[in-house]
Design goal:
The complex is a heterodimer of chains A (71) and B (404). With 71 residues, chain A is mostly helical. Chain A is 65% helix and 0% strand. The N and C termini of chain A lie far apart (71 Å). Chain B is an all-alpha fold and 404 residues long. Chain B folds into two domains: 255 residues, Cytochrome Bc1 Complex, Chain C; 113 residues, no CATH class. Chain B is built from 14 helices and two strands; from the N terminus they run H-E-H-H-H-H-H-H-H-E-H-H-H-H-H-H. In chain B, helix 10 crosses helix 13 and helix 13 runs antiparallel to helix 14. The N and C termini of chain B lie far apart (60 Å). The chains are: A mainly alpha (71), B mainly alpha (404). Chains A and B meet through helix 2 of A and helix 8, strand 2, helix 12 and helix 13 of B.
């Protein structure tokens, strides 16, 4: 079981709602979102471009095929 | 911690306590780490609903389809059991795929957790077999023809192929013997998955969980209960909502309408499509025009997954600190999505070409893994920007050569 670790002391006290930690959930939401986008936009592109690009290519190809057979 | 119930110190309970209550967990693990326990929940749902469905199901070619209808119409709560079981399989795969990609992103397969990863791949394989034979049981058109197509793949194996197919079928076609052995195996395999999951957990708990930073977290551990338990619970509630939407509002959206037609060996459906969770592998199979080549490619998918911890050369685990790997990871995700999409398209242009490129792309990720780790190690070593650029150039050249 991962050896013997000294676990951090746990204090059983009030529930999370009483600690008012939820109030901090939206704190700096704008900054956090901006930071996320700024740091990950290249990764997002590497995910989206091949998927959307391939789908667009396939649709375009099929449309051209259809028109080719029509005329 | 100071006050602990004495019952938890007793032999059986102490094991339970050590692994599920006082288990030391890294304090920084995120919600992505909740998919492991969620997969366990899915397995429990599948076993429980499956056991109750088996009480009303009849594994006979003349009665199987009707017995499913009987479950849906006559058995009290039968519709719920069946929809939970059918959609539960899809949910199980969604959870396991997310669990898998989390492991891949954060390098959870890297030393010393190779065994955890390999056992995970074995569980995935068992899941695929279980789900496949489970889909045959309703004895609809897609059940019958899916079974015929997939079991026939074994005939591609030289010399013994045809014998294997006859042995799988229990005769000379997919028939009553096939349905009976599939039912028997479908009941057995989930318990083997449960056993493998316990081994997976035992192997994990030997070295402890990985964390988003991918570093040794021995100095910063917290007890599983209540901290991680509460975190997992958030995931369970979110999952319950997501699962309920499918079960109560769109129970057939993930299935195929042809499976509501009784199996007819004299009428082949226009498109034989497997369940959505098999589509990426199915796309790889179809991308190779040779039958044996396709089967070998499927084998290679699982060999690649099993080999991943051993071909990995990176000293850094988490992709948060591996910017180049991070891009390849997202390309792999895109590639798998593309393969999934291609798997349900007809075999015609341009889908064939896209499928073939995506199949190459899938294996390309595993081919560059050893090179990537070494290149990143050099980049870290050489902080000089100019040298870093030259290493990057040599890396890109090697990728180009490999691709060529």
């Amino acid at each position: 079981m991962g050896g013997k670790y000294k676990l951090k002391e746990v204090t059983y006290s009030l529930g999370p709602d009483s600690w008012e930690v939820m109030r901090g959930l939206w704190k700096g939401a704008g900054y956090k979102t901006h930071k996320r986008i700024h740091e990950n936009w290249v990764s997002a592109l590497t995910l989206l471009v091949p998927v959307i690009g391939s789908y667009w290519y396939a649709e375009n190809y099929r449309e051209k095929e259809k028109l080719h057979h029509r005329h | 911690m100071a006050r602990r119930l004495s019952i938890l110190k007793q032999p059986i309970f102490s094991t339970f306590n050590n692994h599920l209550i006082d288990y030391p967990t890294p304090s920084n693990i995120s919600y992505w780490w909740g998919f492991g326990s969620l997969a366990g929940l899915c397995l429990v749902i599948q076993i429980l609903t499956g056991v109750f469905l088996a009480m009303h199901y009849t594994p006979h070619v003349d009665l199987a389809f009707l017995s499913v209808e009987h479950i849906m119409r006559d058995v009290k709560g039968g519709w719920l059991l069946r929809y939970m079981h059918a959609n539960g399989a899809s949910m199980f795969f969604i959870v396991v795929y997310l669990h898998f990609f989390r492991g891949l992103y954060y390098g959870s397969y890297a030393s010393p957790r190779e065994l955890v990863w390999c056992l995970g791949v074995v569980i995935l394989l068992l899941m695929i077999v279980t789900a496949f034979i489970g889909y045959v049981l309703p004895w609809g058109q897609m059940s019958f023809w899916g079974a015929t197509v997939i079991t026939s793949l074994a005939s591609a194996i030289p010399v013994v192929g045809d014998t294997i197919v006859t042995w799988l079928w229990g005769g000379f076609s997919v028939d009553n013997a096939t349905l009976n052995r599939f039912f028997s195996l479908h009941y057995l395999l989930p318990f083997i998955i449960a056993g493998a999951s316990i081994l997976h957990l035992a192997a994990l708990h030997q070295y402890g969980s990985n964390n988003p930073l991918g570093i040794n977290s021995s100095v910063d551990k917290i007890a599983f209960y209540p901290y991680i338990y509460v975190k997992d619970l958030v995931g369970w509630v979110a999952f319950a909502i997501f699962f309920s939407i499918f079960v109560f509002y769109a129970p057939n959206v993930l299935g195929h309408p042809d499976n509501y037609i009784p199996a007819n060996p004299m009428s082949t459906p226009a498109h034989i499509v497997p369940e959505w969770y098999f589509l990426p592998v199915y796309a790889i199979l179809r991308s190779i025009p040779n039958k044996l080549g396709g089967v070998a490619a499927i084998g290679l998918v699982f060999v690649s997954l099993l080999a991943l911890p051993f071909i990995n050369t990176s000293y850094v685990r988490s992709s948060s600190f591996r910017p180049i790997h991070q891009k390849f990871f997202w390309l792999l995700v895109a590639d798998c999505l593309l393969l999934g999409w291609i798997g349900c398209q007809p075999v015609e242009a341009p889908y064939v070409t896209i499928g073939q490129i995506a199949s190459v792309g899938f294996f390309f990720y595993f081919a560059i893994t050893p090179i990537l780790g070494k290149c990143e190690a050099r980049l870290i070593k050489n902080s000089n920007a100019c040298e870093a650029r030259s290493v990057l150039a040599s890396f890109l050249t090697s990728i180009g050569l490999l691709w060529w």
